[in-house]
């Protein structure tokens, strides 16, 4: 709090005594409500603090001061801080009101009264609480499966906020401990998703922020559906793969790559690819290979288009018999978008 030029702190008791002596003389104070020690007053940042002080005689000489110097001497305001005022709802009250309290207002305040023999004082310690506020949190991050990940969440507040982490999706797991840093060693694809940092203290509701962790991993075929169809009818072969980034697909008949032409059409949407045959002929029956690839790897599955009544019930399986050169060429072609 700003104000007039203040005396040296070592001289404050003597200066205050002289100051009180200069105030208007009145009857001696019979008794004062200053028998207790230092009282604590807790106020939230931005609120108004009222530091109470009472006397039993209107002629008492009273002053307020803090660690920086004199605030009020009688009715004379020494502080230049516009937030500070006297509150006198009764003739015997000499309270100090501080509006829009901030952390720099925290500390000890003294109400000093001149009695018949010597000054008697009452001390109030103002404690300023600050709601929790997350000041820094990791940005969204993308890593490869198996990597180590460290998430950071820092917060301010008084009292010091307690920081907790929770994996929102898909597990909903809460992490034990109170840590600014969350370390995930050898992260898996199941550990991808949103992570929530919560900073809490008893001042107000918690501050919450989120960070998204994306885990890249190579494709895995999750479904490969064979089909039967009579000649002259329409047929559909379906292939799905799980991967991050989203996989690219190619289709092969034996060692020959299939393009959308001559009655065949390939439709790939996200993690799913369809091979559609508009009009089945004898030449369309047989084994097909679905290849899924991203920058981390390539995989494949065999599917069959067969005649009705042949008794085949195979819904497709991962094929290990596909030549390695074909997988390598497929991966190179998919990555280069050939």
TrEMBL record:
One of its GO terms (biological process) is cell adhesion. The keyword Transferase does not apply. Residues 1-28 form the signal peptide. It is a lipid-anchor; GPI-anchor. Gene3D superfamilies: Immunoglobulins. Keywords: Cell adhesion, Cell membrane, Disulfide bond, Glycoprotein, GPI-anchor, Immunoglobulin domain, Lipoprotein, Membrane, Repeat, Signal. One of its GO terms (cellular component) is plasma membrane. It holds the Pfam family I-set. Residues 24-122, 132-214, 219-306 form the Ig-like domain. Belongs to the immunoglobulin superfamily. IgLON family. This is Ig-like domain-containing protein.
């Amino acid at each position: 709090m700003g104000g007039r030029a203040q005396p040296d702190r070592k001289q404050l008791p003597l200066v205050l005594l002289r100051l009180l002596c200069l105030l208007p003389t009145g009857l001696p104070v019979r008794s004062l409500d200053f028998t207790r020690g230092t009282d604590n007053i807790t106020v939230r940042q931005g609120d108004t603090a009222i530091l109470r002080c009472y006397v039993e005689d209107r002629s008492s000489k009273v002053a307020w001061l803090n660690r920086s110097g004199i605030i009020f001497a009688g009715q004379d305001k020494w502080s230049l801080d516009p937030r500070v005022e006297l509150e006198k709802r009764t003739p015997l009250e000499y309270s100090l009101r501080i509006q829009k309290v901030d952390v720099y207002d925290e500390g000890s305040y003294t109400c000093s009264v001149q009695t018949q023999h010597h000054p008697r004082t009452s001390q109030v310690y103002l404690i300023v609480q600050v709601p929790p506020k997350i000041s820094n949190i990791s940005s969204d991050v993308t890593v490869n499966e198996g990597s180590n990940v460290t998430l950071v969440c820092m917060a301010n507040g008084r009292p010091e906020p307690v920081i907790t982490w929770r994996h929102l999706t898909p597990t909903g797991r809460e992490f034990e401990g109170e840590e600014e840093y969350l370390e995930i060693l050898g992260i898996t694809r199941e550990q991808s998703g949103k992570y929530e940092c919560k900073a809490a203290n008893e001042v107000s509701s918690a501050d919450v922020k989120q960070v998204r962790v994306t885990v890249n991993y190579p494709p895995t075929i999750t479904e490969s559906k064979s089909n039967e169809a009579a000649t002259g009818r329409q047929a559909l072969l379906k292939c799905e793969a799980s991967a991050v980034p989203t996989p690219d697909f190619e289709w092969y008949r034996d060692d020959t790559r299939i393009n959308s032409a001559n009655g065949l059409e390939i439709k790939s949407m996200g993690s799913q690819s369809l091979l559609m045959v508009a009009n089945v002929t004898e030449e369309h029956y047989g084994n097909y290979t679905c290849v899924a690839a991203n920058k981390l790897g390539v995989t494949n599955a065999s599917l069959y288009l067969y005649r009705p009544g042949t008794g085949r019930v195979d819904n497709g399986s991962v094929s290990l018999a596909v030549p390695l050169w074909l997988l390598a060429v497929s991966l190179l072609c998919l990555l280069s978008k050939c």
